[in-house]
Amino acid sequence: MKILVPLPEPEARKAMFEELLPSSGDNELPYDVLVDRTEGYSGSDIRLVCKEAAMQPLRRLMTLLEQEGDSFGE
């Protein structure tokens, strides 16, 4: 038996973004833009997008640290 789960409505997508990508300080995220651009996305898709977005700063930091290590002859 298959159970069809509807795609999240705009309000649900916004709530997911607010929970998974909270704004920090004065840096307000454009949640309305994210909601508009994710029409047709499943909840799982949105979770994956948020995970990837959260990992980007860490990946940039790791790249910088690796480059610094190379410049010191490690």
> What is the N-to-C order of secondary-structure elements (H for helix, E for strand)?
HHH
Low-confidence stretches: none
Q: Give the end-to-end Cα distance, rounded to a whole number of Å.
A: 57 Å
Helix count, DSSP H or I runs of 4 or more residues: 3
Number of strands: 0
User: What is the structural class?
Assistant: mainly alpha
Into which percentage range does the β-strand content fall? under 5%
The quaternary organization reads as single chain
* Computed Rg: 17 Å
What characteristic shape results from the CA principal axes? elongated
Summed over residues and divided by their number, the pLDDT gives a mean of: 91
**Into which percent range does the helicity of residues fall?**
55-70%
Structure description:
Its main location: cytoplasm. This protein is an all-alpha fold and 74 residues long. The protein has a domain at 9-17 and 41-74. It is built from 3 helices and no strands. The chain has helices spanning 10-20, 31-37, 43-71. The protein is elongated and about 60 Å long. The termini are far apart.
